[in-house]
Design a protein that fits this description.
Length: 330
């Protein structure tokens, strides 16, 4: 049985990935400092192939000890200070975690014979499209405009441009903007937040509805990582893939139009904004053609599921701080 380390496994993306890996008969070690708690792990706690290594990836000695005691087939690196606002608030911690600790993790993986290394990057790396009418691809110029994206680009470059080894298979995945239901739920993401505001019958204030972003359901993130983990080496080694679907590029205005189908009487205040340093549409044909990857959910489907769990009271108070990565005031 192969063992996979998932850093940040108790988080929004990782908590789903843990379950998909267990379903596919991997032994899974979740490395997480439980910054946002560990409730997302409760229902798999007694799974015979699951274990939690509670530690901070910045603790080099503790991480080395973990590598020394377990032979890992793969490392899926999700742990990070996530998002532009969180990195801006905690810039030193972001540098330590998203850059230095990631380098240490990469070196330890190579040193201890890890075969597969998957890095969670972001489409935010593209910044603003040079051609407003076009689409960016994996070969487009990267133009990060935040510390979060700058550190992602910096580590990507180190990961993919190192001297190739036939025994090591690193891959970077530039994920679209995420949304949807997870075991560690978040309501500070565009689709989730907009749906939540209208579900609570609040006025939704939207700035700059004309700017583009690609979106991808959190469940499909795990499907993409599994596709890469299990793909033939020659298809993914030292390579990068955008993760999403080309049809799932939306402006905020388009998202509002979809929400109005769910909440026709919604109160929406649209505030004009002429400039946004991040404005990009992404082409996702590479992962579709190379790995036959297809998404399973669309933005309207994600809105419906979030609306449903709030309507039914599955999450009775979505304004609780635990659902947000930065301080939240209802």
């Amino acid at each position: 049985m192969k063992t996979v380390m998932v850093t940040g496994g108790a988080g929004y993306v990782g908590s789903i990935l843990l379950r998909r890996l267990l379903e596919r008969n991997y032994r899974v070690v979740c490395v997480d400092n439980l910054m946002f708690g560990g409730e997302a792990l409760l229902d798999i706690w007694e799974h015979p192939h699951f274990s939690l290594a509670k530690r901070d990836i910045r603790d080099r000695e503790a991480m080395q000890a973990l590598f020394a005691q377990t032979q890992f087939h793969g490392v899926i690196h999700l742990a990070a200070i996530v998002g532009d606002p969180a990195c801006a608030r905690q810039s030193e911690l972001a540098q330590q975690t998203n850059w230095q600790a990631s380098i240490d993790l990469l070196e330890a993986s190579k040193q201890h014979g890890v075969e597969r290394f998957i890095f969670a990057s972001t489409c935010s790396n593209y910044g603003k499209m040079a051609d407003p009418g076009g689409f960016v691809t994996e070969t487009s110029t990267l133009a990060p405009v935040s510390l979060y994206a700058e550190l992602k680009v910096k580590f990507e470059k180190t990961l993919l441009e190192s001297d190739p080894s036939p025994d090591f298979c690193p891959t970077a995945l530039r994920f679209a903007t995420v949304y949807g239901i997870s075991h560690r739920m978040r309501f500070d993401l565009t689709v989730n937040e907009f749906t939540k505001e209208l579900a609570l019958d609040k006025e939704l204030v939207v700035f700059g509805e004309q700017f583009w972003r690609p979106y991808c359901h959190v469940a499909d993130f795990s499907r993409a990582m599994l596709a890469v983990l299990e793909a033939p080496r020659e298809k993914v080694a030292y390579d990068v893939f955008n993760v999403g679907d080309t049809a799932e590029n939306y402006t905020k205005g388009m998202i509002l139009n979809e929400l109005l189908k769910v909440y026709p009487n919604a109160r929406i205040k649209r505030i004009e904004k002429k400039e946004d340093p991040r404005d990009y549409r992404v082409n996702f044909s590479k992962i579709a053609q190379r790995l036959d990857f297809k998404i399973s959910k669309t933005v309207p489907m994600g809105m419906q599921e979030i609306a449903e769990i709030l309507q039914l009271g599955v999450i009775p108070n979505p304004e609780e701080q635990k659902f947000y990565n930065i301080p939240h005031t209802p």
